[in-house]
Amino acid sequence: MEFLRGVRVNENTPFQFMLMLPVGLKNGVEEMASLNRTSFSQEIMAALEDKYLRVNAGGATGVDTRVLLWLGCASGIH
Q1: pTM above 0.85, yes or no
Q2: Which of the four, 23, 26, 47, 64, has the lowest number of CB atoms within 10 Å?
C-alpha cells in the first residue's frame, strides 16, 4: 500500500494524469474507441495493457509481470 499526495492507493486505485497527444494520434484513438464502442480512456488502457501486460495471460501480476517482461526484453524475447 502506498500513499500518493496523502491518499492511500493500491493496484486497483485509478491514477489520473494529464496526457498530451499529437492531434493525429488523438484522432486515431477517438476513431478506434468509436469503432470498438469504448471510451477514449478504455482504448488507451487496452493499448497499454496489450503492450505492458501481455505476460499476464499466464496469471502473473504486478511485480511478477514487470520481472517477466524485463527478463523477456533482456533476453531478446518480445
Answers
A1: no
A2: 23
The residue with cell 478506434 is 32
Which pLDDT tens digit goes with each residue over 15-69?
A: 777 889 999 999 999 999 999 899 999 999 888 888 877 655 555 556 666 666 6
pLDDT value of residue 30? 95
Report in angstroms the alpha-carbon separations of 18 from 15, 26, 71.
10, 13, 30
- What does the alpha-carbon distance between residue 33 and residue 40 come to, in Å, rounded to a whole number? 6
> What does the DSSP assignment read for 28-67?
HHHHHHHHHT--HHHHHHHHHHHHHSGGGGGT--HHHHHH
Contacts of 22 (CB under 8 A, 6+ apart): none
Phi, psi of 9 (to 5 degrees): -130, 155
